[in-house]
Amino acid sequence: MILKPRFKDYICTVSHPEGCKKNVLDQIEYTLSKNNIKGSKHALIIGASTGYGLASRIASTFGMGADTIGVIFEKPASERRTASSGWYNTAAFEEAAVKSGFNPITINGDAFSNEVKETVIEAIKKNFGKIDLIVYSLASPRRKDPASDVIYHSVLKTIDEVYENKSVDFHNKTVFNVKIDTASNSEIEETIKVMGGEDWKLWIEKLKEADVLDHGVKTLAYSYIGPELTHAIYKNGTIGKAKANLELAANDLNNYLSDINGTAYVSINRALVTQSSMAIPVVPLYISLLNKIMKEKNINEGCIQQIVRLFSDILYKENVPVDTDGRIRLDDLEMKEDVQKQISELWDKISTENLKELTDIDNFEDEFFKLFGFNRSDVDYSLDVNQNVEIKNLL
Known about the structure:
39% of the residues lie in helices and 16% in strands. By secondary structure, it is an alpha/beta fold. It has one domain (7-371): 3-Layer(aba) Sandwich (Rossmann fold), CATH 3.40.50.720. The strands form four sheets. The chain has a seven-stranded parallel sheet, sandwiched between helices. Helix 2 (51-64) crosses helix 9. The protein is globular, with a radius of gyration of 20 Å. It starts with 6 loop residues before the first strand and ends in a 24-residue tail after the last helix.
């Protein structure tokens, strides 16, 4: 089948297996180019198929030499559609890991469910005995509570007042104003239920109760704060309330894990072109401007560069550097004063007419297509490809 991209809202509904494979191999190559990282030997990555979760699995395996269990929620191919990009990413990762002598295990299912948690625990007992690193990197619009079976939905809304600002349609390169309504109390609570720390805590509690956590275990969850420009929709909005709850969960987990010398951290990462960030109004335009400035300053990083830096330079130090709220600040380069000053100076000037001049919108679009395996110069998209790719170590 010859595959071409098709779109629905901010998601590409077609993925290219060869392009996705190349993306994964690039991340592996970057990881291998760095010195060996001392750290985990048996890691669990919850949300392991795209973005920071995929980068964490790659860095754990090819940087630290860890065997991993990856939890994903992805769709295989059918006669009428390709598999999701996360499916192809995982297949490519597993193929490369096995060739390098590792023992990766992948579980495809709803990470919020008790069933998946129990399957993971059995896999740990059978294959590893115990694990020493858990990365929690879930991004989902909905969550079914395993205790009540109630389904909660998250919303991207403000809290104090209606918010208006610029955003961008990168397909047709136009800048437009977007208005974001305020959330009700129930919408705030539901967003916290989906995107907060409750499920992270449930994972760690079940793993500890099953006695599969190693002494000195580390667990990480990823978050974002961003500049004042995006605070209304992010930090001070419904997402921000959920992320504040995630930070409270880290404090609770540090107490809960203290008897086995375990630690829990929230890592504040930088804004990047990911499937999750595409859903947030204003943020795509901000990222296209941010990337241009960071490239000019030669400090730009992608997912794998961020996570390799996290694992090699921060997480396994004797005294992990954190801010006054106990968070790892991997967004330090994004939040540099000179970077944010330049963004503030340019933001009000951006219009459809000067979009390409002031931002890196073309590269933003290119990075978006690459998330789904397209727009790579080393892939011939005129050729037939087999869309039915198997994940061989899938449970």
